[in-house]
Amino acid sequence: MNERQLRSQARKLLRNLGYRRTPPPAELCRGLSGQLGVPIDLAGRSLPTVRSFGCVIPFPDKYLITYLTDLSVERQNYTIYHEIAHIFLGHLDASGTGTPMLCGSLLVDRDAPPSGSHYDQHAEWEAETLGAILSDWSKLPIRASWADLGRTGEALGSAFGGRGV
C-alpha cells in the first residue's frame, strides 16, 4: 500500500470502531481487539541499554505488544501505534499460511552482514507510516529527536541543524 491507501485504511478502521479521531493506544487496542475477537495486551518493559524497541508477538489466543518504558511517553505511544499497524495490516501472517511471524528486528539474521535500512522491508515502512498517521491524528504529543539516537544522533542533528519534531 502507498501512503494514500494507508490513510484510507486508517479512516475506515477508526470509522468501523466508532472513533472520530485516533484514541490513545490502549483504547485503540481494546477497540481493535473487539473487532478481531482476539485480545491485544500491552506490556511495557525497561531495557536501559536499548535505544528503541517494540514488538508484537502473536500467540494462538492473543497478541502481545511489548515496548520500552525507558522512553518518553510520546515515544511509547508512537511505538505502540506502529505495532498496532502490524496487526491491523496483517503483517503477522506469513503468506496467508496461518504461520505466525514475529515482526521487526527479531526477523533480522544477526549473522548476515548489514544491508540497507530496517525500513527497506515494505511491511516495516507500512507500519511506520500508518503508526505516524495514527499518531498525528491522535493529537497526543509525539516527540522524535536526534537525541533519541544517543551521542551519534545528537552529532548528526547538530551537523544537519535538525531538532526533531
UniProtKB/TrEMBL annotation:
<protein>
    <recommendedName>
        <fullName>IrrE N-terminal-like domain-containing protein</fullName>
    </recommendedName>
</protein>
